[in-house]
Specification:
With 354 residues, the chain is an alpha/beta fold. It contains 12 helices and 16 strands. It has 2 domains: 260 residues, Vaccinia Virus protein VP39 (Rossmann fold, 3-Layer(aba) Sandwich); 84 residues. The strands form 4 sheets. The chain has an 8-stranded mixed sheet, with helices on both faces. The two termini are 36 Å apart.
């Protein structure tokens, strides 16, 4: 754990035990198929992705390579773990097809919308301003981790959508040599990996990255209390990753590390509130507007049309729906002020914890 291995990911993953990884983030070669030089408008040469690790002889060779590493990922991934794979139009549809053929279940495709994309210098097509992430599990029955409330918190209290507007690495975040040249052509931004890791894992989970590159996956894992494991064929990048990790400290966002926003309230029966004398049998419960009142029975249920219901089923019946959270729905009157019964559930939990 917490190591980057200087080796091919296929050799490395074969050494990993079955179903031992909680989360995988894979940023594989895209097989960009760049032809000729890309010239900027002012005449300078743009250095795109022309690295040897991104070169293949044919689609068949690329597909076979993709099948093999995805098969290994499937083997090492826990039953309830999940995998994210990022790609562009050149490869992501082939990757998605192979994943479905292997039996992976796609939960979401997320669009990384780049705020500052590289322009299309020739003016022959739209500026390519996005990449696609496939978020998948091993099967439709996987009980995967999704920290919904954490992501909502990160998104300013609003439900996070599947389009993420994040800039490409630039400024201080972009790793460069002493001559100002990019150290890696496909460095991914910290914010992108932050969303992937915080949405799909918990503290101390093991995060695997088969194609570590500059190590952003490892850096973000260390920042947020996850364990990391990765493979990188080029030694110069492994050294770079360890250099980044030595400078990486745990984030000050402790609530994100501890998954505070997604910790579920402990179950408390209504009878416990009665035993603690927070509410009294015979008194009335109301909705937030002080209407739709129902009387509380000795057993901790609500009386509606001479029938007893749990606080959840009772509120659902009033609303005309199948299910509803009664803790959020019901209130009691205290000094002519409506007070949520959920406040008393929290007090019971606080009493138990103390």
């Amino acid at each position: 754990m917490d190591q980057i291995h200087n080796m091919d990911c296929l050799k490395g993953m074969r050494k990993i035990e079955n179903e031992s990884i909680d989360l995988i983030f894979a940023d594989p070669p895209y097989y960009m198929q760049t032809e000729g030089q890309l010239i900027r408008v002012e005449g300078s040469i743009y250095l795109g992705v022309n690295d040897t690790w991104d070169q293949f002889n044919s689609y068949n060779e690329y597909d076979q390579f993709s099948f093999e590493w995805l098969k290994q990922c499937q083997r090492v991934l826990k039953r309830n773990g999940s995998i994210w794979v990022i790609g562009s139009f050149q490869n992501i549809y082939r990757i998605g097809y192979i994943m479905q053929q292997l039996g992976y279940w796609i939960i979401n495709d997320v669009i990384w919308s780049k705020k500052n994309p590289t322009p299309n210098f020739m003016g022959t097509r739209f500026t390519n301003a996005n990449e696609i992430l496939l978020w998948c599990t091993k099967s439709p029955k996987s009980k995967y981790t999704f920290n919904y409330k954490t992501m909502k918190h990160i998104n300013g209290g609003k439900q996070m959508k599947s389009v993420w507007e994040i800039g490409i690495c630039s400024g201080k975040e972009r790793l460069r040599d002493d001559k100002g040249r990019k150290l890696h052509n496909t460095q991914k931004p910290i914010e992108l990996l932050k969303r992937v890791i915080l949405s799909s894992s918990r503290k101390n989970d093991v995060v695997l990255d088969p194609f570590m590159g500059t190590g952003t996956t490892a850096v973000v894992s260390k920042m947020y209390g996850r364990k990391y494991l990765g493979f990188e064929k080029e030694e110069k990048y492994v050294e770079l990753i360890y250099h980044r990790l030595r400078k990486t400290e745990e984030s000050i966002e402790k609530n994100l590390i501890e998954n505070v926003y997604d910790i579920k309230e402990k179950r408390v029966p209504m009878k416990r509130l009665i035993e603690n004398k927070f509410i009294v049998p015979g008194e009335f419960l109301f909705d937030k507007n002080g209407e739709n009142k129902s009387q509380l029975t000795q057993s901790g249920k609500v009386l509606i049309a001479h029938s007893e219901y749990s606080i959840h089923k009772g509120s659902a019946k009033i609303l005309g729906i199948v299910n509803n959270n009664g803790w959020d729905y019901w209130h009691v009157k205290r000094n002519d002020i409506l007070k949520p019964i959920n406040d008393y559930r929290k007090k019971v939990n606080e009493t138990k914890n103390s």
